[in-house]
Amino acid sequence: MKAFILDKYKKNGALRFGDMPEPALGDDDVLVEIHAAGLNPLDSKIRDGAFKPLLPYRPPFILGHDMAGIVARVGSKVHRFKVGDEVYARPRDGRVGTFAELIAINEADLALKPKSLTMEQAASIPLVGLTAWQALVERADLQKGQKVLIHAGSGGVGTFAIQLAKHLGATVATTTSTANVELVKSLGADVVIDYKKQNFENLLSGYDVVLNSLDGDTLQKSLSVLKPGGKLISISGPPDPDFAREQGLNWLLQQVLRLLSFSIRRKAKGGGISYSFLYMRASGEQLSQVTSLIEAGIIRPIMDRVFPFEATNEALAYLDTGRSKGKVVVKIR
Fold first, then answer.
1. pLDDT at position 206, please?
2. From which residue to which does any coiled coil extend (predicted)?
């Protein structure tokens, strides 16, 4: 099968378009013919080597964390899916590889694709949808009437998280550039901070939750907008000791991550705020709940561009500019 392969970790390095063997199908696996794959900053970070000590990948391997497609075969213990089903997923860590014509995915990671979406639209959803769900529903337990600041509102996670937070009944503030003010307002943002003209930390206070996807400087400033008892959740780091334990990292790496996150954890604790790093996990069950919200018209996918499969490297380069509104997708079939 054709695939885009990472031969070695290299900052902004190109993936190799070549042939890989078809994936082996386990008893609990579903073989999916991929029609479209979503791109994420996580792909770039893994390609650049940023997660090399933390994730179990050894080159050469196929990159890609989002997909939509059609079931081609099922393992002997699979009961929820059949050949011909339209599905989508974020495959679990250690088994990614959606920049390819085929993938074998554990049944538990898979959900039926929303009928109202095209393959390209569906492929844009899993990673950002699960990230927003796990941050706002699971980790923050966001309640009606609470206030949440979602950074980078026009990005993949941001566009989804704004809509989810509004559905949960929260007042939503977001940061974005001048060009994207109207987009985030259309998604339901109540307070829009144009970061090119305004400093969010001077304008916001008394917030219950902050979802950060930006740099360490933004993370530090976010503490000041939270009230005591507030929650600072970051998907861009630094990883904390809880993440290290969940990933089963060795003692030395656990200590390294403890040190990396020590400053922000100490400052947060001093203000009566909880800091946590969120590295989303695959979940077909949660993705099915996301499907229900999409089918009900509560959440819509926001896509920037669709590239042909052959242009996957160009699509990654475009994503790396940081200027995309919503998601970037490659069409495979």
1. 98
2. none
Q: What architecture is the 2-125+301-331 domain classified under in CATH?
A: Alpha-Beta Complex (3.90)
Domain borders along the chain are: 2-125+301-331, 128-277
Q: Enter the tokens of residue 105.
A: 């995915």
Q: What residue spans of the chain are helical by DSSP H?
A: 41-48, 119-123, 126-133, 156-167, 181-186, 200-203, 216-222, 241-246, 251-260, 262-270, 284-295, 312-320
Assign domain 128-277 one CATH number from 2.160.10.10, 3.40.50.720, 3.40.50.1820, 3.30.413.10: 3.40.50.720
**What span, in angstroms and rounded, lies between the C-alpha atoms of 309 and 329?**
9
Strand ranges (E), the chain: 2-6, 16-19, 29-39, 61-62, 67-74, 86-89, 102-106, 110-112, 147-150, 171-176, 191-194, 207-212, 226-234, 274-277, 303-308, 327-331
Radius of gyration of the chain measured on its C-alpha atoms: 19
Q: What is the pLDDT of residues 126-147, one digit of tens each?
A: 999 999 999 999 999 999 999 9
Assessment of whether the complete model's pTM goes beyond 0.90: yes
Tokens standing for residue 48: 């650049």
Is the C-alpha dihedral spanning 182, 183, 189, 195 positive or negative?
negative
Nearest to 306 by CA among 333, 320, 323, 327: 327
Confidence of residue 286 (pLDDT cuts 50, 70, 90): very high
